[in-house]
Amino acid sequence: MAAMWLARRAARRLPPLLSRQGGEPTRPWFLGSTAPPPVLGSPPLPAVERIFRRGFCSVRRFAGESSAAAAADADEEEPENGFAGGDQAIDFPGGKVSFMAEMNFLPESHGERIKCYRVLDDDGKTISGSRFQEVSKEVAVKMYSEMVTLHIMDNIFYEAQRQGRISFYLTSNGEEAINIASAAALSIDDIVLPQYREPGVLMWRGFTLQEFANQCFGNNMDYGKGRQMPIHYGSNRLNYFTVSSPIATQLPHAVGAAYSLKMDKKDACAITYFGDGGTSEGDFHAALNFAAVMEAPVIFFCRNNGWAISTPTTEQFRSDGVVIRGQAYGIRGIRVDGNDALAVYSAVHAAREMAIAEGRPILVEALTYRVGHHSTSDDSTKYRPVDEIEHWRTARDPISRYRKWVQGNDWWSDAEESELRSRVRKELLQAIQVAERMQKPPVAELFTDVYDQVPSNLREQEQLLRDTIMKHPADYPTDVPV
Q1: Structural domains for the chain
Q2: Residue ranges of the Dehydrogenase E1 component domain (predicted)?
Q3: Which of 165, 209, 356, 357 to pair with 421, CA 20 to 30 A apart?
Q4: Cα distance between residue 421 and residue 412, in whole Å
């Protein structure tokens, strides 16, 4: 009744808007009316209809109300409080909301924490009754080989930084299953927007050890032309966006990329990776809401490793981790054991299918642990106990657990293990030697690839830099061509 009164009052205030080209008045459509809503592809709505559709919410009885009773209510005067008494509901965007007389605040959290999906136990055996996506011997062995390769690469590059051969590095130690298993569940057509701890995703797609070395050393063969810090990888041919230092900025970009895939009717999705610290950024919340409203096929993959550099999750938020936040934005989610390669693979495989087939975003929270320091600029023993790190390094190591499962299927042997580790180490050391000897990009490359015609202010800056280098040559590297 109150809704009909509001509708009549709005119509009286906007008489010029109620007709099309002098024709008969058009009955406005609003939430809760019996008239069908406009559909995509129909003629533009008159202004008053747009007003009602976007901003009008009707309040009406819903307990056995007949159309005759509703018509009679339309002739009554406006009720003093705007409601008609009895059981009521409001037809609000998103669905009908019932009223109640009791004041009832939602609890701050559920009594039980959301459970974590797991396939392998700590001994590498499948849990009885577990459901997971089957993997072939070929895929399983490749997943294990790449996890070992990633671990070796991280350790050698970390040592290279400590020797002063590269300026910066960070490892994925303890998170190898997240990298490789999630990548294995994707298609090469899926677009990846990483943070900075997902080199294994790029490795799985075909990025070579030499390409990794070229980027870390910033030589002439580096696709970023030496402009980025080490580990800021990127590859156009592998649909892997270049790593960006600012936290969480890649999340809204991923939604836009996913929506473009949907518009083009591509059989692909976007996936973006981020840490638990990134969920405290505004871009995280904006991206989730953006994705939910636009129904974009994007997978939000959170590496909840317990620490945002030196800040533990207990000091970041009071909610039950990250997965619970998806519900607030209308996003389906799952919590998964990030140190269980089969669980990660299965979860991402299912998430990808849902994202593409149903046109929806999915939030995956992987519980894991950062065994290494945050980066070469960090000493994690200053803020967390050494025995905690050691426990995760040994008892909960994802590589060891997955190897037990692969070997239990008779797909791997100690001899193959030895050969793999020896070969990868040799290839990587050779790649580092080649990358180190290669010439650096010239100074001029600092000022290209932004403008079609370099503006005068950038030309002045380039000349000033050259003059400064010539004046103080000892302060600049000798292997950078001027």
Answers
A1: 2-98 (no CATH), 137-437 (3.40.50.970)
A2: 146-442
A3: 165
A4: 13
- CB within 8 A of 181, min separation 6: which ones? 143, 341, 342, 344, 345, 348
Assign residue 408 a region: left if phi > 0, alpha if psi is -120 to 50, beta otherwise? alpha
CA distance 151 to 315: 30
Residues with catalytic annotation? 159, 245, 374-375
CB atoms within 10 A of CB 187: 11
CA neighbor of 208 nearest in space, from 272, 271, 149, 157 = 149
Beta bridge partners of 270: 191, 298
Q: Contact, 257 vs 224, CB < 8 A?
A: no
CA–CA gap between residue 480 and residue 482 (Å, rounded): 6
For residue 106, what pLDDT is reported?
Answer: 87
391-409 pLDDT, tens digit each: 999 999 999 999 999 999 9
Mean pLDDT of 152-171: 97
Model pTM? 0.82
Q: What is the residue whose two structure tokens read 């050691």? A: 390
The type of residue at 349 is H
Q: Which has the higher per-residue pLDDT, 264 or 109? A: 264
